[in-house]
Amino acid sequence: MVPTNRGSKVKTIRTFFSGSPIQRSSKLRADSDDLYRAYRHPDTRFLPVWQSRCLVAEQRAVLLGKSELSAYTDGPDDVIFLGRLDERFIFALALPDHADPAGTAQAEFIEVRKLIGQVDETDAGLLAYARAMVNWQQSHAYCSICGTRNQAIEGGFVMQCGDVNCAQRSFPRLDPAIIVLVIDRALCLLGRQPSWPEGQFSTIAGFVEPGESLEDAVRREVAEETNIAVGDCRYLASQPWPFPSALMIGFHAEAGSQSIRLNDAELAEARWISREQIVEREVMLPPSASVAYRLIEAWFDSGSDQPLDALVPAASSWRRR
Ligand SMILES: [Zn+2]
User: Fold this and answer.
1) Which of 34, 108, 140, 253 has the least C-beta neighbours within 10 A?
2) What is the pLDDT of residues 37-61, one digit of tens each?
């Protein structure tokens, strides 16, 4: 009999798009003289973002010197200070949509979502960070109170209304979403969205709503999608998901009931799945770079002599088994 994971140890989980070695040096954002010196420093490097895409070569992020980007920046007001990496100051720089950045480097601008599982893990978080900040700034060009054009201040981390009588400030936005593996002894609850092919399953997920704790959101989402009642839940890991600004917050939860009924249209199918069924490949699991996979893996490994990845090699994307 396969043991359950109750009471057993679950290892610390690292997720794709997190754990970047960059030091954010947030104090420097508020000091315009230091920021200017950092911008002007010959070793400073810039991460260009164009049409929500980042520059990548040979699975690594491409950092450019200012001379390669001089057509796009005049000073620290039009870049975003990301932090320090290997003693260098790093800025993100948004290139205009109409630019032709092909001439800036022998590298390719790639949509960050397509980099999942493909790009070096230490660079993935840096690219996601740059893209998220540029996307946030571009979507906050105007004051939401009075409609005046905003100005970027504090290294690009604050967008402030240009009307001094209003001076409304906006801060980088994150949309928290829960993602949960519900566990009933030796079974886990997985669902298939209507647009996914037969056999492709993942964990339950959804955005946290105003007035909810994370635990409230776990209980509501699981009940809405499957009619399963949730008992205790336990936080395991989180994952930045900058498409455009989600933060996935991952849980294991104990099932308080077993009978599945699809309550809304979010899932086409939901099933209780055993470790044996996973090993027999009755279901296709999410890609290894997703926090969903890591939640399933943590549960699987806590009750198995052999790790999941040794028994069923993880896919780097949905399309490759
Ligand atoms: Zn305003």
Assistant:
1) 108
2) 999 999 999 999 999 999 999 889 9
How is 86-111 classified by DSSP, letter by letter? TTEEEEEEEEPTT--GGGG-SSEEEE
Q: How far is the CA of 142 from the centre of ligand 1 (A)?
A: 8
Report residue 251 as tokens: 């849980």
Centroid of ligand 1 to alpha carbon of 153 (angstroms): 15
* CATH architecture of the domain covering 175-311: Alpha-Beta Complex (3.90)
To the question of domain 26-139 being in CATH 3.90.79, the answer is yes
Do 26-139 and 175-311 come out as alike in CATH topology? yes
Query: Ligand 1 center to residue 79 CA distance, Å?
Result: 22
Confidence (pTM): 0.90
Residue 5 and residue 20: Cα distance in Å, rounded?
30
Residue 171 CA to ligand 1 centre (angstroms) = 14
Distance 103 CA to ligand 1 centre (A): 38
